[in-house]
């Protein structure tokens, strides 16, 4: 029996993460670069108020490289100062900085630091997080998510044009943190 290796978050397998499959398959990658880029463009009005954008991208292979690609593409095309950090533990956010977080631990660290510095999210600094949850909703965090697109993803797979992989939509839920 051959193992299928994948990097997963909440047991989501994307086409980019699958190393080897012996049969034909259909997949809708949740973090497709073009979908993520379009999602970032859709919140340009919110991102424009930040002088610098920082992507907190944890080391290892838990997250697909398409996230980096979309972030870099957005920053370069929109002439944004940017940085990519491996974690938020040592961050001391400067006013006018927007953060894109992937891991919950980094999100928690940024919120904790922002409270200690008495920064108001969405004003002094911004946070855009991946994946929605009830806690993120209650905290007013703006999120990027493909979770609400489940029905759209299923219909994508049923389209004749989708032979192996099709890019699923990345949605933005606007809240006060950005």
Please tag this protein with its features.
16% strand, alpha/beta, six-stranded mixed beta sheet, 178 residues
Task: Characterize this entry briefly.
This protein is of the alpha/beta class.
Describe the structure.
About 30% of the residues lie in helices and about 15% in strands. The chain has helices at about 35-40, 45, 65-75, 105-115, 135-140, 150-160; strands at about 50-55, 80-85, 95-100, 125-130, 140-145, 170-175. The longest helix is centred in the middle third of the chain and has 13 residues, at about 65-75. The protein is of the alpha/beta class and about 180 residues long. The N and C termini lie far apart (about 45 Å). The protein has a single domain (about 35-155, about 165-175), classed as 3-Layer(aba) Sandwich (Rossmann fold), CATH 3.40.50. It is globular.
Q: Report the CATH topology name.
A: Rossmann fold
User: How much helix, percentage-wise, in residues?
Assistant: 25-40%
Order of helices and strands: HHEHEEHEHEHE
Main β-sheet description = 6 strands, mixed
> Order of strands side by side in the largest beta sheet?
2-1-3-4-5-6
What is the topology?
Elements: H1 33-42, H2 44-47, E1 52-56, H3 65-77, E2 81-85, E3 97-101, H4 104-116, E4 125-130, H5 134-139, E5 142-145, H6 150-158, E6 171-173
Parallel strand pairs: 1-2, 1-3, 3-4, 4-5
Antiparallel strand pairs: 5-6
Helix pairs in contact: 1-3
């Amino acid at each position: 029996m051959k193992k299928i290796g994948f990097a997963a978050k909440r047991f989501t397998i994307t086409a980019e993460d699958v190393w080897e499959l012996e049969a034909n398959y259909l997949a809708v990658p949740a973090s497709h670069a073009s979908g993520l880029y379009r999602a970032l463009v859709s919140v340009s009005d919110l991102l424009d108020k930040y002088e610098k954008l920082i992507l907190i991208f944890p080391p290892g292979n838990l997250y697909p490289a398409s996230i980096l690609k979309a972030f870099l593409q957005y920053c370069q095309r929109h002439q944004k100062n940017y940085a990519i950090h491996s974690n938020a533990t040592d961050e001391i956010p400067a006013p006018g900085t927007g953060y894109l977080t992937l891991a919950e631990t980094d999100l928690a660290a940024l919120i904790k630091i922002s409270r200690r510095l008495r920064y108001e999210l969405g004003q002094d600094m911004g946070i855009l997080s991946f994946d929605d949850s009830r806690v993120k909703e209650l905290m007013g965090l703006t999120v990027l998510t493909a979770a609400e697109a489940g029905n759209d993803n299923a219909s994508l797979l049923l389209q004749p044009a989708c032979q192996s992989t099709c890019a699923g939509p990345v949605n933005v839920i606007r809240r006060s943190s950005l």
